[in-house]
UniProtKB/TrEMBL annotation:
Domain of life: Bacteria
Location of region: Disordered: 107-149
Protein name per the record: Homeodomain-like domain-containing protein
Length: 149
């Protein structure tokens, strides 16, 4: 059975750089030439690696956010074709992505959290029910207060 590759400074740097770029441990492990499971074992025993790992993931999240902002605000070029030939390109923007970013930023700015689960409610079509059973279907009698209004 072959020995696993040595954990060197170069492998560590390659892993952390790849992790910061993509935010994917499996891909970063492959780029560094070391197994994912071995990396998780190293993370458990090396607090400095764990800290650098978390920093790399945070950097990756920043890169993803920057790309999302670019696509939402600057848009992307999408070619259009006529009879099999490209005739031009149109800039497409993502309103949905922009709304998502705005919601996240505003929630962060106001220190409010978005609900993690959808709000579920029931809609009852018909007269309201009282504790004594279904409500009467006729209107209540006029009162003196209502007459002057």
């Amino acid at each position: 059975m072959a020995r696993p590759p040595a954990w060197t400074r170069q492998r560590r740097a390659a892993f952390l750089e790849a992790l910061a770029l993509r935010g994917n441990v499996t891909w970063a492990a492959h780029q560094a030439g070391i197994s994912r499971s071995r990396l998780y074992k190293l993370r458990k025993t090396d607090p400095e690696l764990a800290k650098e790992w978390d920093e790399a993931l945070a950097e990756s999240a920043d890169l993803l956010e920057a790309e999302a902002v670019r696509r939402a605000v600057e848009g992307t070029e999408e070619p259009y074709f006529y009879q099999g030939e490209q005739r031009g390109a149109a800039r497409k923007y993502s309103d949905q992505l922009l709304m998502f970013l705005l919601k996240e930023r505003r929630g962060e700015a106001t220190n409010k959290e978005s609900p993690s689960a959808p709000v579920i409610f029931e809609l009852h079509l018909g007269p309201p029910e009282s504790e004594n059973g279904p409500a009467a279907t006729e209107a209540p009698p006029d009162t003196e207060d209502d007459a002057g209004a």
